[in-house]
Structures are given as C-alpha cells and as structure tokens.
Amino acid sequence: MAETAAAGALTDEDKFLFDLRGFLVVKNVLSGDECRELIRLADEAWPRQAEDGRYRRFDGISTWGHAFVDLMDHDTVLPYLVELMGNRLRIDHDYCIFMRKKAPAHALHGGPWRYETDHWYRYHDGVMRTGLTVATWNLTDAGPGAGGFVCVPGSHKTNFLPNMPRDVARFERDADWVVQPTLAAGDVLIFTEALIHGTARWTADHERRTLLYKYSPPHSTWAKKFYDPGDYPDATPRQLRLMAPPSVEGHAPVMERASRGALNTASPAGPEA
Asked: Which CATH architecture has domain 4-264?
C-alpha cells in the first residue's frame, strides 16, 4: 500500500457532482485482469449451485481472502470515503450481488432520514458528511439500459420523501427521473444511503458481478454483528482500524495526517487534530 495519499481526493467537480447527485463514479480503479481475477476467486469461494436463481447475494465477501479484504481500504477509494465521512469512518458490512439476465428488480429504497440516525447527508462550511455510505465495485460492465444500480439523483436532499410514488419505487411505472448510471468493469460507484436507490431488472447477456462495501461514521452501525479481527489474522493495522466497533472517542483515525495536505497509512500516534 502507498505510504501517503492526497488529502483532497475529490476534485472541485467531484464535490459539485456528489453534492448535486448523491453519488460519484471513480473510473478505472481496477484493471480488466483484476476484475477477472476477483470473479475467478469469487467462483472458487462461492460456486454456483444447480438450484441457484438468477439473483444471488452473499453476505461477508471479506471472508473470501486477501483480495477481498484489500478492497475495503483500497488506496484509490479510501481517500474519497475519508473526505466524505471523516477520518474515523468504519467498515460496517460487505456483500456481493450477482445477477444473470432477467434477474428481478429490487424496489427503490433509502432517502434522507429514512432511518433517523443512519441515512443522512449534510454540508457545512465547505465540508460534506454522509451517514451510511457504499463503495460499489463493478467487475462487469453495466451499459445503458442494462439494469442493476439505479437511483433518483439529488434525492439525498429531498424534503418530500413520503411523496415518493410507490408504483415507481416498485418499478410498476417508468419515470425519467430514475437513472441508471453507465458503469464499466473496474469502476467504483460511491453513494450515500440517503440517496433513493434500488436495483433494476438485469437485461444484459453477461452476468452482473458487483461487490459492495458499506461504511458508517464512527459512532453508528447498520450491521447487528461487528467484524471479528480474529477472522482476519493477516489484516493490516489500517484494515483493523476500519473494522473497529462503533465509538465516538474510542475510534482511532484510519489515516494519519502526516503533513499539510497529505494523509498516510501509518498507525496514528495520538488523537486526530
């Protein structure tokens, strides 16, 4: 892992777009070879069974080995998350979604303050902060109209969440304000759970392969079970800091500020400034 990472991962345009839409796409984080290798490892860890349907989900993909653990603090993606959530963020839970052609949709959900202490977004004095936030790793393409992740851009700031049409949320009626971002294999989509989002029916001929890592602010948790460091004997100090249980005062900074304008991965010597 790199010793340092730029403190300002988000460009001015990134900040504008995330505040405007509630999501951001980080392009080309993984190479084609890396995507194919993760697919191969996933198939070894969780082979398809004859009785499996078109839609499959597995909770706890970080137990599949180093390659999956290392995604939780990837040097390219982690600085984005730190800038959106603060340097004491924690990994909350992880899972995958695999979809074959005609796999069914899953209704739109989320929205600001849908769960008072968890799904939220705020801005103050030049700083954005989010509650539960997702890094979605796309191992296969999601071209125009393919399905998969869809959202209502800007809905993380709506004041009329109860007015969301239920027939649209259930995909019983099309609405041009429900958007499917076009994603290439290797892209990472970061979004706040305050954004109204869901899963559209998969229409592409190839299988959708998506890995989801969800992060919480230091004081909160969505998952009912925390990470057990004993299950990850080879985890790095930074990964163990991410896995720490929720706490405000007791949750160490994930990345140490080594100098003005830079963050590094060394174990922090004291409280975050």
From this structure: Sandwich (2.60)
